[in-house]
Amino acid sequence: MAKKILMSVNMRCQKCRSEALKIGGQTTGVTFVGLEGEEKDQVVVIGEGIDAAGLVLRLRKKVGFAVLISVTDVDTSE
């Protein structure tokens, strides 16, 4: 079952946004990475077998302050 991980990340510039997407995309098992929110300050990662806490730690180290908002199951059988 795939998981949808929603994280709020403090991104000050376009370079921070692209770095956050790059980190999300390099994670093993990821099928989708995107930005959400009114100010595009939330990173959405969908995939199987993703370590949500580890992903947040990598974002904190490379981009800035990050908070895990939610982890939900996603039905991908279409």
Please tell me about this protein's structure.
This is HMA domain-containing protein. It comes from Eruca vesicaria subsp. sativa (Garden rocket). The chain has 78 residues and is α+β, with helices and mostly antiparallel strands. It has 2 helices and 4 strands; from the N terminus they run E-H-E-E-H-E. Helix 1 runs antiparallel to helix 2 (52-62). It is globular and about 35 Å long.
Set out the fold topology.
Elements: E1 2-9, H1 14-26, E2 30-36, E3 42-47, H2 52-62, E4 66-74
Antiparallel strand pairs: 1-3, 1-4, 2-3
Proportion in helices = 25-40%
Structural class category: alpha+beta
**Total DSSP E strands:** 4
Oligomeric status? single chain
Number of helices: 2
Globally, the shape reads globular
Pick out the low-confidence regions.
none
Largest sheet features:
4 strands, antiparallel
Overall residue-averaged pLDDT value: 92
Taking all Cα atoms into account, the compactness measure Rg is: 12 Å
Order of helices and strands: EHEEHE
How are strands sequenced across the largest beta sheet?
A: 2-3-1-4
- Separation of termini? 13 Å
Strand content: 35-45%
In short:
With 78 residues, the chain is of the alpha+beta class. The protein is built from 2 helices and 4 strands; from the N terminus they run E-H-E-E-H-E.
Provide the descriptors you would attach to this structure in a database record.
78 residues; alpha+beta; 2 helices; HIPP46
